[in-house]
Amino acid sequence: MTLSKLVIRNLTRRRGRFLFTLMGITIGIASVVTFISLGGSLKSEIRRESAALGANLIVTPKGSCAYEQVSILTGEQLPTTITGEELARIRGIEGMTALPFLTGRTAIQNRPISVMGILPTETKPFKRWSVGKGGYFTDDESPGVVLGTVVADQFGLSPGSELTVRGESLPVIGVLAQTGGKDDVTIFMPLTVAQRLYEQDDRVSYVAVRVENPEELEAYSIKISEQVSLGVVSDKQMLSSVLTIVGTVNMTLQLIALVAVLAAAFGIINTMMTATYERKREIGILQALGARPRTIFSIFLFESAFYGLIGGAVGVVFGMLFSAVAAPHVSQNAFTAFVAGSGGGMLDISAIVGAIVFSTLIAALAGLYPAWRAARLSPVEAISYE
């Protein structure tokens, strides 16, 4: 009988023990893979949303923290404290384009949806939008709304439909072509209409700025700060800040998942130690047939590593499936909206191989002591065991 067949036969001899030990390492690896998968697609989604802003600088209310920066990327409602006077000062600086945005929330069929007040004629070229269905605002005062494609499809809305926002019925003018970002799940209306509906007279949530010469970004940031007492952050700074927060949270979750892997490793140690005591007579027979201590050591070590190999492979599959299924159902807020938009993502081949190798290595390390104990048994002690 070959070594591989002997290992498989020994493992499956007690199927219940085999399955429960395997489940431990599978669950641990599945948890790690889930967080790695979600984390990777989460970062990609954040970068895409940052690029979709189309801005070099973001002007936020004074004292805004990273939470507000995340909210800008996700379209969540923000404090509306930037006044019309401050906006006029910012827009008066030459060499740059500054557009105000007012963020809000409404509900369609009891489901929360982002609302954004914009300057229609300037925002369309700024965001590089194209209209998929119907028309677009004829001017900055047009009463009506333009929908993101996902909102329109999800609720069966089309040009000519009526949509109620804060008790006022507004006609659907058109539907934007798909952007692949948060704009697809947003309702857009003229800024003046949004300010009236949300009772934010002459106030906006943030201002997106695009400078003509990106090399003078720092200079324009200083100019804005000299004009208004507001927060100014570059797109790169905001991206770095958000990625740092997300990376820290994701790393914490991965460390928690690693605890499950560690617990599974102790489960493997327990299983293999039990097998060592139960199979003393078998070990004695192998020694009587000429098996050397290193052969006995290899048998037990391979059995332990086999748990990691199979558990890692199954864990990777379950982890990827869970991340793909769970992502769209994550409750959305400023920090989790990216997850729902990411679709769960997929791991590259190096990450998959790495997870399986890591699982196999951990299981093999867990089997070192039991394998050493089995190899140290004397032939007389082993063969005389009852």
Which descriptor suits the 3D outline? elongated
Largest sheet: 10 strands, mixed
Helix content: 55-70%
- Number of DSSP strands? 12
Count of alpha/pi helices: 15
Uncertain regions: pLDDT < 50 for 5+ in a row?
A: 331-342
Structural class: alpha+beta
Tell me the span between the first and last alpha carbons: 25 Å
Mean pLDDT value: 80
- The portion of residues forming beta strands comes to 15-25%
Number of domains: 2
What features would you highlight for this structure?
single chain, 386 residues, alpha+beta, 2 domains, 10-stranded mixed β-sheet, two-stranded antiparallel ribbon, 12 strands, 58% helix
Description:
This protein has 386 residues and is an alpha+beta fold. The protein has two domains: 3-48 and 242-383, no CATH class; 62-229, no CATH class. It has 15 helices and twelve strands. The chain has helices at 3-12, 15-52, 66-74, 84-91, 120-127, 149-155, 191-197, 217-227, 235-278, 280-288, 293-326, 337-342, 349-366, 368-376, 379-383; strands spanning 57-60, 82-83, 96-108, 111-118, 131-134, 145-147, 162-165, 168-176, 186-190, 203-204, 206-211, 231-234. Strands 1, 3, 4, 5, 6, 7, 8, 9, 11 and 12 form a ten-stranded mixed sheet that branches. It has a two-stranded antiparallel sheet with strand order 2-10. α2 (15-52) runs antiparallel to α9, α3 (66-74) packs across α9 and α9 runs parallel beside α13. The radius of gyration is 30 Å and the shape is elongated. Residues 331-342 have low confidence and may be disordered.
